From TrEMBL:
NCBIfam families with a match to the protein in the record: PRK06816.1 (NF005293)
Domain (Beta-ketoacyl-[acyl-carrier-protein] synthase III C-terminal) ranges: 283-360
InterPro entries to which the protein is assigned, alphabetical: ACP_syn_III_C, Thiolase-like
Protein name, entry field: Beta-ketoacyl-ACP synthase III
Pfam families on file: ACP_syn_III_C
SUPFAM superfamilies noted in UniProt: Thiolase-like
Keywords: Acyltransferase, Transferase
The keyword Signal appears for this protein: no
Origin superkingdom: Bacteria
Acyltransferase is among the record's keywords: yes
Amino acid sequence: MIKEAYITRISKFLPHDPISNDELESVLGYVNDQPSKSRAIVLRNNGIKTRYYAVKDGVFTHNNVQLTCEAINKLVDQQEIQKVDLLACGTSSPDQMMPSHALMVHGELRHAPSFEVVSQAGNCCSSIHGLKYAFNSVRVGDAKKAVVTGSESFARKMQASNFVEEVQKLKELEENPYIAFEKDFLRWMLSDGSAAVLVEDHPNEEGLSLRIDSIDMCSYAQKYDTCMYMGGDKDENGNFKGYLEFSNQELIEKSIFSVKQDVKLLRPNIVAQGFEKLTEICERYAIGADDIDWFLPHMSSEFFRKPIQEALIKYNLPIPQERWFTNLTKVGNVGAASAFLMLEELLNKNMLKKGERILVAVPESSRFTYAFVLLTVV
């Protein structure tokens, strides 16, 4: 018997006080002891006003595992975690390659019992992959209570010491904001934080829950080359090479472990491809723009708001802006945690009403993957 699955609780952990745009370089450092020539342009395009870093007075205070555990400990106490059947964790920025992120999180939860643990690798969609795993596990009865997390730890990777001097193409940046997603420019895009959701086979007896109606994902990796990457690089012919194919010296010289973006691929594909897929999903479930009360698009930058709106109109899903909700400008782009952070604010600030329907859209540029979640407030 297939059961229903519900998000009954959401927590978040955003380390320390919010960092304003004027404070960024004091936290991340100056490349070659010079202020960034591109920072102001990038910030103008991405619209982020404040974000969070796991850094306090120049000292790193949390790694990814610790950020994740903070959110979990706010979600379930030591008594309730004894009833958890499943832990699924998604992140773009694990602290290590082995063991998996979720196993390291479980290891840090000393008061937790033994239960199923799943790590979802990838980028922004990784937490939604974890949510779908929990969704299906609860539906078929493999789990009654599942914890799903999304987290990122980028401050260490964005430190000035990790970047080599690069030519700042200011004129090109002004004319083409997609340039803002190349290597050094990503320093002003990504931030730290975590969020956790509790998925159960019944709704809350008191207060609101979010019934998970559907989770649909689609990859277009067979059509497009690698777009956003870390731990590899592209050669002169555009072929992607993983870090094992580089010498130790090249790993440093080419900044192989910096986060990079191929903006030539990003520009024509990131919005259009995914929202074309959304049309098929809406047709399958017989829903239209009028059926969506809240539209939560994960945007790495406010720059994408207009292209997303144009794509929705093009594909006959013209959800008006007054039904959109994001908190990018306040919390920054927290990658795998971003979708959960939007839901957390809606649910915990009593912005929802029973019967409302929520559509969450998460585009991932690494190899063009898209996730769409449909929820009903109950």
